[in-house]
Protein: Sigma-70 family RNA polymerase sigma factor
Amino acid sequence: MNALDEAGFEALVAPYRSELQAHCYRVLGSLEDAEEAIQDTLLSAWQHYPDFEHRSSVRTWLYRIATNRCLDQLRAGRRRPMATPLSREPPEPSSSSEVAWLQPYPDDLLVEDPADAVAGRETIGLAYVRALQLLPPRQRVVLVLRDVLAFRAAEVAEMLEITEEAVTSALKRARATLRVEEAPEPPPPPRSAQERTVVQAWLDAFCLMDIPRLVELLTEDAWLRMPPLPFEYHGRAAAARFFTAMQTGARHDRILQTRANGQPAYSAYAQDRVTGLWHSRGLFVITVAGDKVHEVTRFEPALAAHFGLPRTLPE
Structure:
């Protein structure tokens, strides 16, 4: 038996909390689901710590619990978030999203993510996380544990209570199936002058709803996405149709910037002409490719709270 008081347990798990939550997010694709999974993980770890025999490291033991809590969530059926209707009827979309539950992940939570060193920052990017969601659950967790976090096949087999051969087979199928959408050019370094220039040009045009300028700043094969709404618009012409159809005359004169999934992000606020208050119209995450914008993903305004941003600004 391993006796440990609450303070001792917190000290034991604290170094792993951030990376465990990022792991749950990669598997589940939803910040809110990941938060629920990490709470379930820590509760289970606290309850079962007396039975922990130290045959593996504490980190590996915690990953085993977290991975299985994620699989439990997937087997139980994912929550489908409620979507705020668009202000106007959108034009015919280019396609319909298969990942309605995708949510952004605050960069502030990534300060201790070991995947940075193992597989690179792109494994938390929206494109990668979205692609993961299209894999079957077991293949998804095996791929993340092996390729993103570099656990050995034997460790993954023990976590999932399967054979090493099953791990190898699942990994092979996952690698063959995974399709991560690639931008036409690599992004500039995070927080670099080049990135800031592109983002500021986009925000200037966005605030004015200068549609020709917005379209000019997009890559030829750019994407507009808006989970949990299923509509997706691909290419400059489709983006122009969407912006034109959605134009209301409202200016977004207030912008609060943040970062999500290693990418620039912002909350845009439009003023209510009756109350004078400024209401968030969504949290937007930008994928920059070279000196252009390759993808803009708009998320529900309520998610801004996870980034420390208000839903409403005073007059």
